[in-house]
Amino acid sequence: MSEQSHYIIELSKMPLGTHKFDFQLDNDFFASLEKTEILSGNISAKVTLNLREEDYQLSIAVHGTVFVVCDRCLDPMPLEINDEQEIRSEEEEEFSILNSQYSIANRTLDLSWLAYEIVSINIPLVHCHPEGGCNPQMDLLLQSHLCDEPDPEN
Q1: Domain ranges of the chain
Q2: What is the pLDDT of residues 101-112, one digit of tens each?
Q3: Is residue 49 exposed (0-12), middle (13-18) or buried (19+ Cβ within 10 Å)?
Q4: 149 phi and psi angles, rounded to 5 deg
Q5: Helix (H) or strand (E) holding 85
Q6: Is the pTM of this model over 0.85?
Q7: Which pairs with CB-CB distance under 8 Å and at least 24 residues apart come from 32-40?
């Protein structure tokens, strides 16, 4: 997913203990993604990694704004993102929570993918501007296609 190495943490080279990382998911990051509903954005991600001998625990907090297409008028619309998730891996699981984003051989972790996933689960299924916020021209066009009376043929 990420081509930038500053998102990738090499767990095998890190000492045990707590480590903090801060990074941005910006317009360039979202533009590099394929098949995503996010058009652009600026997300601040703060990661706390507690690396222990047997397991590790991640806390990832994301804050900022992304832009998606309004389902009603098709114009871009902002969505505020503010979430924090905890991820814990235990020795028995051998980091299975992270699937392909964790490489057992290299013991690396791509934080950009995890932050992106947290952002994407915070996007509602239906995204529409608040009442009166849609493109006025598209609103008029949609109103012109509304049927006031039931169609007797249907």
Answers
A1: 5-144
A2: 444 445 678 888
A3: buried
A4: -115, 150
A5: strand 76-89
A6: no
A7: 32/3, 33/1, 33/116, 36/120, 37/68, 37/69, 37/120, 37/123, 38/66, 38/67, 38/68, 38/119, 38/120, 38/123, 39/66, 39/67, 39/68, 39/69, 39/76, 40/66, 40/67, 40/76
